[in-house]
Amino acid sequence: MPSATLLGQALISGVLAGGMYGLLALGLSLSWGLLRLVNLSHFALAFLAAYLTYEMGTTYHIDPWWSVLVIVPAMFVIGLLQHWVFDRFKVNELASLLITFSFAVILEVAIQLYWTADYRRFETHYSTLSIKVGAFYIPVLELILCLVAGVLAWGTWLWLRKTYVGKALRASAEDAEIAAAYGVDHKKLAYLLSGLGAAYAGVAGTFIALIATLAPAQIWAWLGVVFAVVIIGRLGNPLGALFAGMLIGASESIAMAVLSPAWAPVVSFSVLIVLLLWDPDWS
Amino acid sequence: MTSAKEALTRRTRWRWAETVFWLAAFGALLLPPGKFLILNEIAILALFALSLDLILGYAGIVSLGHAAFLGVGAYSAGLLAKHVTGDPLAGLALAIGVSTILGFCTSFLVLRGSDLTRLMVTLGVALVLGELANALPQYTGGADGLQGVVMAPLLGRFDFDLFGRTAYAYSLTTLFVLALLARRIVGSPFGLSLSAIRCNQLRARALGVPVGKRLVAAYTLAAAYAGAAGALLAQTTAFVSLDVFDFHRSADVLLVLIIGGAGWLYGGIAGAAAFKLLQDGIASLTPQYWQFWIGLFLVVFVLVGRERLFGGLRKLLVRR
Predict the structure, then answer these.
(1) What contacts A223, CB < 8 A, 6 or more positions away?
(2) A283 lies in a domain?
(3) What tens digit of pLDDT does each residue of B144-195 get?
(4) Residues of chain A numbered 68-97 and touching chain B (CB < 8 Å)
(5) Which stretches within B11-136 are classed as H helix?
(6) Which domain holds residue A176?
(7) CATH label of the domain that carries residue A185
(8) Least CB-CB distance to A262: which of B125, B135, B298?
(9) Across the interface, do B116 and A231 touch by the CB < 8 Å criterion?
(10) ipTM above 0.95, yes or no
(11) What's the predicted TM-score (pTM) here?
């Protein structure tokens, strides 16, 4: 059994790393839960944003805190374009899965074409910065990531609960026809939501560039965990996605410390499967 | 009365196009060596897609992790050949047995909950199995793959040759036998009840179809088929690597089935041939970026609709 310090440190790093799962899950959860579109290319968009951050940082020496101002709106536009395709061809859930899988493959190849398949690391002077609290170290970047994810998730949650636009979106997710009869323009709102989802991928991508090592094949690395997080957090629930992300991050990290690193990837789906056994109608 | 019975049996009658297809497939064995490797790959992918068709096309279960059974079949056949006996048919039988058991056990998990959670659970089972194979390198060889798989001659007589003629004959025969079996099954009352469940679960239940049991049976059957495909893969390449559990495998086979069309058994075979030939053709034109073109093709294909492209072929092979 590892020491209390190690366990505590594992818990802190796990929760903070889980912020990334939550941030990635946020956009997916919105489009899946409210638009019934499963967007596999969400990860590819996040990596595209990460590579753009990397490119701006290394070639043009633009700080990520500035480049994010360009990348996030650009991603928003890409989200709109993607939704135009879905809208134009009346894509359903299964087809969206296949099409976005193909989108992701295309983006993966495009990234590989420009940035090659080599591993890239965006080095900054603050990338290893951390604060010492008692016996524990808290990495600053991950902490900022969690704060940003928290603000976005909470903001989105409030937006969906309190504003008329948010309420209209939830209404048409529940029953599109009745909502339309009450004057909800689902089409316009769907565009807004798709753009927003892609913009969140852009935010996530900026942090991926700062925290992780980039390689085109890494697009698929988080797919399983983040999908599990989306379901555990309940579809269409931003705060749920964030908390589920942190829960999974923490359990993975504890499993790594107590058992062995090889078992970490099994954790998220074990949690999901137990949850579904307990309540089959979860999500 | 006779007309209802006729309508049901008419769909199961042989058509000349089917006979021509199988004759052509077996006739390909007489070709000079050179194309057997890709033909073998097509036959294996076709069997894998056929297995997915049994649950997607007939029972209406979408699986994102069908590679779980392919992988389990491949590893069981590979491990048997490495440690016990190199006899291919013994490996095939073991792979079918193991994947059947796994399919039966996981079916209860998969069939709980809605379509959405099904996607996740199937994906999850494949990922967990992939991680298990990765975490137990003493048995599976881990990331290096399972090496040292040596196959004995098929039926004690036919050696697996370098050109893959034996391999293709073996895979094609397995595909043929299992496709015939599947053909009987989907035309049987059991198969018809599956179609009824896919069309309207509530009504099927009201008619007295034991929905849960039928779905468990269909899922288990599909797992057995996928296990057989895995065994063929392991035996004809004499190697098993972790990528048998990969998400790409599950997604590719779903695409193959969509290309060929789900719900008519030959869809998997047509899709597999189209997918592999396309892959092969584009890869020889642009060796590095073929994935890009495949991806683009698939986007257009799914968007514009396959009915326009493959509808005619389907009419030829199936009575409706």
Answers:
(1) A40, A43, B247
(2) no
(3) 777 777 776 777 677 777 777 888 888 999 999 999 899 888 888 888 888 8
(4) 85, 89, 91, 93-95, 97
(5) 16-27, 36-53, 67-83, 88-110, 115-135
(6) 4-278
(7) 1.10.3470
(8) B135
(9) yes
(10) no
(11) 0.82
